[in-house]
Amino acid sequence: MEGFLSVAIGAGIGLAGVVFGSWFAARRQDRMWLREQNLKAGIGFNTAVVQLIDYLRETQLSDDGAGGNELADRMQEARSALYLLCADETVQLADALALRVWRSRPSEGRDDRRAEHQETLDLLRRFTHQLRREIAGT
Questions:
Q1: What residues contact residue 49 under an 8 Å CB cut-off, 6+ apart?
Q2: Model's pTM, two decimal places?
Q3: pLDDT over threshold 60, residue 8
Q4: Which pLDDT tens digit goes with each residue over 20-34?
């Protein structure tokens, strides 16, 4: 009887270890998946924003034809993913950046518009820095 009890206790401890190990591995895998999704959304948003900024330095969005609309759609799609995955501060920076990009005008060499462009790039850097901190925290 004592042998059976010790085997049962050993089996119970082993089973508890397996359950805990499985839970821990699943949790780690979920965090890694979330981190990967944040990274993909951030890369998609940054890429679309940079391409759209470059595009809009030469033309207005309403004058653009299909190219600018496609870039704007890609930016919005990535922004939607950020809404679902990221913290409020990151989402607020993405919103501010998208709004600034929507309001962009061709620079045409004017100093005031170059200053606007520099402010947009500074906001892009802030967004990227915030996203990096968020991803590093997961």
A1: 75, 97, 98, 101, 124
A2: 0.72
A3: yes
A4: 888 888 888 988 998
